[in-house]
Amino acid sequence: MAKHDSIPVSSSKLPLFAPFAVPKIGNMATAWHEILHLGTKQRHSAGSIVKVEGETCFDLFYIDEGKVHVVFDTIDGRMRSVVSFEPGSIFNLAPAATRCEASGQYQCMTDAVIWQIPGKVLHDPVFAARYPNLMLSVIELLGTLVLTYHTYLTDMLMDDFVTRFSRFLISLSLERGSDEFPLGMTQEQLASVFGVHRATLARAIQHLKQEAIIACFTCRRVEIIDMERLRHMAHL
Protein backbone atom coordinates (compact mmCIF):
# COMPACT_ATOMS: atom_id res chain seq x y z
CA MET A 1 0.00 0.00 0.00
CA ALA A 2 1.22 3.47 -0.84
CA LYS A 3 1.59 5.76 2.15
CA HIS A 4 0.97 9.49 2.19
CA ASP A 5 4.27 10.88 3.42
CA SER A 6 4.57 13.01 0.29
CA ILE A 7 1.00 14.10 -0.38
CA PRO A 8 1.09 17.92 -0.53
CA VAL A 9 -2.63 18.46 -0.08
CA SER A 10 -3.47 20.04 3.26
CA SER A 11 -6.72 18.94 4.87
CA SER A 12 -7.43 22.64 5.41
CA LYS A 13 -7.94 22.96 1.64
CA LEU A 14 -10.71 20.39 1.67
CA PRO A 15 -14.37 21.23 2.29
CA LEU A 16 -15.30 21.16 5.96
CA PHE A 17 -17.33 18.01 5.47
CA ALA A 18 -15.06 16.30 2.95
CA PRO A 19 -13.41 13.65 5.15
CA PHE A 20 -16.68 11.87 5.80
CA ALA A 21 -19.08 13.03 3.05
CA VAL A 22 -21.51 13.74 5.87
CA PRO A 23 -20.13 16.58 8.03
CA LYS A 24 -19.48 15.53 11.63
CA ILE A 25 -20.04 17.64 14.71
CA GLY A 26 -18.95 16.28 18.05
CA ASN A 27 -17.21 16.80 21.37
CA MET A 28 -18.09 20.50 21.43
CA ALA A 29 -20.63 20.63 24.22
CA THR A 30 -18.99 18.85 27.14
CA ALA A 31 -19.83 21.84 29.35
CA TRP A 32 -23.42 20.62 29.20
CA HIS A 33 -22.54 17.82 31.60
CA GLU A 34 -23.09 20.42 34.32
CA ILE A 35 -26.84 20.51 33.68
CA LEU A 36 -27.69 16.96 32.66
CA HIS A 37 -29.57 16.71 35.94
CA LEU A 38 -32.15 19.05 34.36
CA GLY A 39 -32.75 16.61 31.53
CA THR A 40 -34.26 13.21 30.91
CA LYS A 41 -32.08 10.27 29.89
CA GLN A 42 -33.20 8.32 26.83
CA ARG A 43 -31.95 5.18 25.12
CA HIS A 44 -32.48 4.73 21.40
CA SER A 45 -31.72 1.78 19.15
CA ALA A 46 -29.87 2.05 15.85
CA GLY A 47 -32.16 3.15 13.03
CA SER A 48 -34.77 4.74 15.29
CA ILE A 49 -36.00 8.31 14.90
CA VAL A 50 -35.69 10.65 17.87
CA LYS A 51 -39.12 12.20 18.32
CA VAL A 52 -38.92 15.98 18.23
CA GLU A 53 -42.50 17.15 18.11
CA GLY A 54 -45.18 18.77 20.22
CA GLU A 55 -43.81 19.93 23.56
CA THR A 56 -40.32 18.60 22.71
CA CYS A 57 -40.09 20.53 19.45
CA PHE A 58 -37.83 23.21 20.95
CA ASP A 59 -35.88 21.07 23.42
CA LEU A 60 -32.16 20.35 23.30
CA PHE A 61 -30.68 16.88 22.92
CA TYR A 62 -27.22 16.03 24.24
CA ILE A 63 -25.54 12.89 22.86
CA ASP A 64 -23.81 10.95 25.61
CA GLU A 65 -23.19 7.87 23.47
CA GLY A 66 -23.83 7.01 19.84
CA LYS A 67 -24.27 8.88 16.58
CA VAL A 68 -27.27 10.81 15.22
CA HIS A 69 -27.78 12.06 11.66
CA VAL A 70 -30.02 14.83 10.39
CA VAL A 71 -31.90 13.16 7.52
CA PHE A 72 -34.28 14.38 4.84
CA ASP A 73 -36.56 12.52 2.46
CA THR A 74 -35.46 12.95 -1.15
CA ILE A 75 -37.80 13.24 -4.13
CA ASP A 76 -37.33 9.57 -4.99
CA GLY A 77 -38.33 8.53 -1.47
CA ARG A 78 -34.88 7.84 -0.05
CA MET A 79 -33.51 9.37 3.14
CA ARG A 80 -30.41 11.52 2.81
CA SER A 81 -28.02 12.24 5.68
CA VAL A 82 -26.89 15.86 5.90
CA VAL A 83 -25.06 16.27 9.22
CA SER A 84 -23.75 13.73 11.72
CA PHE A 85 -23.80 14.57 15.43
CA GLU A 86 -21.26 12.63 17.48
CA PRO A 87 -20.90 12.04 21.25
CA GLY A 88 -20.44 15.28 23.16
CA SER A 89 -22.61 17.37 20.86
CA ILE A 90 -26.04 18.98 21.03
CA PHE A 91 -28.65 18.68 18.30
CA ASN A 92 -31.89 20.61 17.70
CA LEU A 93 -30.05 23.71 18.91
CA ALA A 94 -31.23 26.12 16.20
CA PRO A 95 -34.96 25.41 16.75
CA ALA A 96 -34.45 25.71 20.52
CA ALA A 97 -32.62 29.03 20.13
CA THR A 98 -35.01 30.56 17.58
CA ARG A 99 -38.23 28.80 18.63
CA CYS A 100 -38.84 28.01 14.98
CA GLU A 101 -39.51 24.50 13.73
CA ALA A 102 -37.00 22.93 11.36
CA SER A 103 -37.46 20.35 8.62
CA GLY A 104 -35.79 16.96 8.64
CA GLN A 105 -35.57 14.21 11.23
CA TYR A 106 -32.96 12.95 13.67
CA GLN A 107 -32.07 9.31 13.06
CA CYS A 108 -29.84 7.24 15.33
CA MET A 109 -27.16 5.58 13.22
CA THR A 110 -26.04 3.50 16.22
CA ASP A 111 -27.50 2.64 19.60
CA ALA A 112 -27.50 5.94 21.47
CA VAL A 113 -27.83 7.45 24.93
CA ILE A 114 -29.34 10.92 24.70
CA TRP A 115 -30.30 13.52 27.30
CA GLN A 116 -33.33 15.67 26.53
CA ILE A 117 -32.95 19.13 28.10
CA PRO A 118 -35.70 21.78 28.17
CA GLY A 119 -34.90 24.33 25.47
CA LYS A 120 -36.32 27.14 27.58
CA VAL A 121 -33.02 27.33 29.48
CA LEU A 122 -31.52 29.18 26.50
CA HIS A 123 -33.95 32.05 27.06
CA ASP A 124 -33.46 32.33 30.82
CA PRO A 125 -31.14 35.27 31.75
CA VAL A 126 -30.51 33.78 35.19
CA PHE A 127 -29.43 30.48 33.61
CA ALA A 128 -27.16 32.32 31.16
CA ALA A 129 -25.48 34.22 33.98
CA ARG A 130 -25.02 31.05 36.03
CA TYR A 131 -23.60 28.98 33.17
CA PRO A 132 -21.56 31.35 30.95
CA ASN A 133 -19.49 28.48 29.55
CA LEU A 134 -22.66 26.89 28.23
CA MET A 135 -23.63 30.10 26.45
CA LEU A 136 -20.18 30.24 24.85
CA SER A 137 -20.68 26.63 23.79
CA VAL A 138 -24.00 27.57 22.18
CA ILE A 139 -22.35 30.36 20.17
CA GLU A 140 -19.53 28.06 19.07
CA LEU A 141 -21.87 25.27 18.04
CA LEU A 142 -24.24 27.59 16.17
CA GLY A 143 -21.26 29.08 14.35
CA THR A 144 -20.03 25.61 13.43
CA LEU A 145 -23.49 24.67 12.13
CA VAL A 146 -23.68 27.81 10.00
CA LEU A 147 -20.21 27.19 8.56
CA THR A 148 -20.98 23.52 7.95
CA TYR A 149 -24.21 24.19 6.08
CA HIS A 150 -22.66 27.10 4.18
CA THR A 151 -19.75 24.94 3.02
CA TYR A 152 -22.06 22.06 2.24
CA LEU A 153 -24.46 24.16 0.16
CA THR A 154 -21.65 26.00 -1.62
CA ASP A 155 -20.02 22.73 -2.57
CA MET A 156 -23.34 21.29 -3.74
CA LEU A 157 -24.16 24.32 -5.89
CA MET A 158 -20.74 25.16 -7.28
CA ASP A 159 -19.20 21.76 -8.06
CA ASP A 160 -20.28 18.89 -10.26
CA PHE A 161 -20.52 15.42 -8.78
CA VAL A 162 -17.19 14.15 -10.13
CA THR A 163 -15.47 17.04 -8.34
CA ARG A 164 -17.24 16.31 -5.06
CA PHE A 165 -16.60 12.59 -5.40
CA SER A 166 -12.90 13.22 -6.07
CA ARG A 167 -12.64 15.37 -2.94
CA PHE A 168 -14.33 12.63 -0.97
CA LEU A 169 -11.78 10.06 -2.16
CA ILE A 170 -8.84 12.34 -1.37
CA SER A 171 -10.11 13.05 2.12
CA LEU A 172 -10.69 9.36 2.83
CA SER A 173 -7.20 8.61 1.56
CA LEU A 174 -5.72 11.26 3.85
CA GLU A 175 -7.72 9.97 6.79
CA ARG A 176 -6.59 6.36 6.22
CA GLY A 177 -3.02 7.36 5.37
CA SER A 178 -2.93 5.25 2.22
CA ASP A 179 -3.91 5.18 -1.46
CA GLU A 180 -5.56 1.81 -0.83
CA PHE A 181 -8.25 1.36 1.82
CA PRO A 182 -11.66 -0.24 2.48
CA LEU A 183 -14.72 1.88 1.70
CA GLY A 184 -16.86 0.20 4.34
CA MET A 185 -20.20 0.72 2.59
CA THR A 186 -21.98 -0.35 -0.57
CA GLN A 187 -22.32 1.88 -3.61
CA GLU A 188 -26.05 2.11 -2.90
CA GLN A 189 -25.33 3.38 0.61
CA LEU A 190 -22.73 5.86 -0.64
CA ALA A 191 -25.10 7.18 -3.30
CA SER A 192 -27.69 7.74 -0.59
CA VAL A 193 -25.15 9.64 1.51
CA PHE A 194 -24.38 11.92 -1.43
CA GLY A 195 -28.05 12.25 -2.32
CA VAL A 196 -27.60 11.04 -5.90
CA HIS A 197 -28.84 8.08 -7.90
CA ARG A 198 -26.64 5.02 -7.90
CA ALA A 199 -26.25 5.43 -11.66
CA THR A 200 -24.70 8.88 -11.10
CA LEU A 201 -22.18 7.41 -8.68
CA ALA A 202 -21.47 4.51 -11.05
CA ARG A 203 -20.73 6.93 -13.90
CA ALA A 204 -18.30 8.88 -11.71
CA ILE A 205 -16.51 5.68 -10.69
CA GLN A 206 -16.32 4.52 -14.30
CA HIS A 207 -14.99 7.92 -15.39
CA LEU A 208 -12.17 7.80 -12.84
CA LYS A 209 -11.34 4.24 -13.91
CA GLN A 210 -11.25 5.21 -17.58
CA GLU A 211 -8.94 8.09 -16.71
CA ALA A 212 -6.67 5.59 -14.92
CA ILE A 213 -7.10 7.47 -11.64
CA ILE A 214 -8.56 4.60 -9.63
CA ALA A 215 -8.05 0.90 -10.26
CA CYS A 216 -10.64 -0.55 -7.91
CA PHE A 217 -13.74 0.68 -6.10
CA THR A 218 -15.64 -1.83 -3.98
CA CYS A 219 -16.99 -2.01 -0.45
CA ARG A 220 -13.84 -3.82 0.68
CA ARG A 221 -11.23 -2.04 -1.40
CA VAL A 222 -10.60 1.34 -3.01
CA GLU A 223 -7.32 1.83 -4.84
CA ILE A 224 -6.15 5.22 -6.09
CA ILE A 225 -3.36 4.93 -8.66
CA ASP A 226 -2.92 8.57 -9.74
CA MET A 227 -3.31 10.96 -6.81
CA GLU A 228 -2.03 13.95 -8.79
CA ARG A 229 -4.77 13.64 -11.40
CA LEU A 230 -7.35 12.98 -8.69
CA ARG A 231 -6.36 16.28 -7.06
CA HIS A 232 -6.77 17.92 -10.46
CA MET A 233 -10.28 16.45 -10.74
CA ALA A 234 -11.03 17.83 -7.27
CA HIS A 235 -9.72 21.30 -8.20
CA LEU A 236 -7.28 21.22 -5.29
From TrEMBL:
Gene3D superfamilies: Jelly Rolls. Residues 16-91 form the Cyclic nucleotide-binding domain. GO terms for molecular function: DNA binding. Residues 159-228 form the HTH crp-type domain. GO terms for biological process: regulation of DNA-templated transcription. Keywords: DNA-binding, Transcription, Transcription regulation. It comes from the Bacteria. The keyword Heme does not apply. The keyword Transmembrane helix does not apply. This is HTH crp-type domain-containing protein.
